[in-house]
Each structure stands twice: as structure tokens, then as C-alpha cells.
Amino acid sequence: MPRILVTGGAGYIGSHTVHQLRTQGFDTIVVDDLSKGHAASVPAEALHVGSIFDRSQLIEILRGERIDAVVHFAAFIAVGESTREPQRYFHNNVSGSLALLSAMSEAGVNKLVFSSTAAVYGNIDVSPIPEDTRYDPANPYGETKVMVERVLHWLDQCAGLRSVRLRYFNACGANPAAGLGERHDPETHLIPLLFRAILTGKPITLFGDDYPTPDGTCIRDYIHVDDLANAHIAALKHLLDGGSSDVFNVGTGEGLSVKEVLAAVERVTGRKVPHVIGPRREGDPARLVADSTKLRRELSWQPVRSTLDDIIRDAWTFETEQPPPEGGGVDGRLKVAGRG
Known about the structure:
Blueprint: E1 3-7, H1 12-23, E2 27-32, E3 47-49, H2 55-64, E4 69-72, H3 79-84, H4 86-107, E5 111-117, H5 140-159, E6 162-168, E7 170-172, H6 190-200, E8 204-207, E9 219-220, E10 222-224, H7 225-240, E11 246-250, E12 256-257, H8 258-269, E13 275-278, E14 287-288, H9 293-299, H10 308-321
Parallel strand pairs: 1-2, 1-4, 2-3, 4-5, 5-6, 6-11, 7-10, 8-13, 9-14
Antiparallel strand pairs: 9-12
């Protein structure tokens, strides 16, 4: 089987993708600096602790492990934080990606699956959103992904690097059987924050109820992390089979509001979520829903775990039943990153 390098593979989406890759027989190597990820979320024999800024280490791994393709997750992902620390986000997400791409070129590796985002579209009045929608990011995080996408376009044109850019929407859920789930530090994602409100009794703040949506709260397309992981594997197979560079949305095509997710959490868990309404969060678009027709048609991908109740049920099982690994993160439990 091909040998795959996963940057940021000890993070949330990265660790689920590593699990799915190894389950399907791929030889998989992980590079992660563990600033956000956790070593317990990937097999010890697969992990190289290191930074994507360490070009010499990356070249050594790419050559020594005879890597055929790279899946690149390593990045900062918090929209709100990116508006407060834009320089930090541009340095990590853009400069770090350039360091990786330079190492790949030196090592002769020319296939990459890139973790992009629906945030490249920004506040667009189109729903669902097709891939040919123009770039219009509403925050620095989205702009960093646009910049890397543009680099990948030109490296395909000028340097023979073939890449698939996956613009995914709201990753969520867990794989409790594999001991994998969301545990960011700090936590910024809606569903685990709703759980935390239930378990601690401290109300969660919902950011804004005056958006131009039916119930006033933001609408998002929620995709189960295992379905998202399998989209990365479909993209890898496309490249390994000689496919050309391309871009695909990854989502269900169904938009759900924050209040609808809250109601579903209460329904699945049987417990009330204490909450208050706060002001809008800077940089948040009102509605982001994917048109994933192209991915379904061209890469034969289908979501199989992405009903909202399935997502919440898996995440709640992880939250309440998964024993914490030694030296875990938040609340002594598993600490993993989001997209990298």
C-alpha cells in the first residue's frame, strides 16, 4: 500500500483520518508538534514529534519513510482567535505550509491533500455553496486558507505538484470505539461546548440571535468527522490513481441553526442545556451550507454517519464514557486539535 504522511495527525480530524487510513491498510506516518494534538490519539510507532517549520526533519522523514503522498492538517483553526492574532495565523498557516511544500519538493513528493475550509467563501448570499463561488473570506483564518489554495494552484501549473483541496464545513462527532473525539484546548466548537454546559451547569453563550436566518442564529452544515476522514481517503486515491488537481466541498448539503443543534443535544441526551444569548462573534457568516454534488459524483463519496442525532450520539458517548488517557488535556481528558 502507498505510504502517507499526515501533518497535524494527532489533532481532531487528523487522528480520525489516520485511524481510517490504517484501518483501510495504508501505511501512515504522522508529524505533529503536539502543541494542540495529543500523542495518545495516534499509534506510537507512527508518530514523529516535530514541526512543519523544520524543513530538514521533514525532508528526512519524507525520504526515509518513502512517502508517496501527504495529507496536510497542521494549522490554527479558531476564527475568533484569528481576528485577535492575525499575524500569528498568517505565520503558522501560510509560512508553515510553504515550509512543508518546500520540503516535499526537495524530497520529490508531488501529491498533497490540503485541509481547507468553507471560510474561504465568507459572507456569501448563496446556499448551498458550489466550488466555483469566488473567494471572499470574512476573517484572517479563512484568508490564510485562500492564500495556501492559491499557492497550490500555481505549484500545480508551474511545478507539477498535484493537490486536492477539501473545503469542509463544520466537522463534529467522534469515534468512541477508537477512543477519538473532540477535546480542544481551549474548546471552541459548538457541540462539545453544549455538553460542557450540561455537565457543569454553567450556561453557554450563543453568539447572536439577530442573523438573517429563520430563528436568528447562524446556520452551518455539520459533517461527521469519520465521513470527513473518508473524504480525505477518497481524495488520496484520486491522486494516487493519477487524478488531476481539484477542489471539493465536503458537507451534507443540509443547514442547521445553532438553536436546532441545541434542541437536538437536549433530545439525544435527555438533559437541558443552560444557555444565554450574547452578541454576534466577529467574523461569523450567517449561513454556510455545502454543495457537495461534485465530491459525490467524481470521487464516489457519500456521508454515512452525518445525521445530527448520530453525530451527537457518538460525541456524547465519547464525552461521557471514554476513559481519559494518562496526561490528557482539558479536564484531564483527551486533548486534540481541530484541523491540525
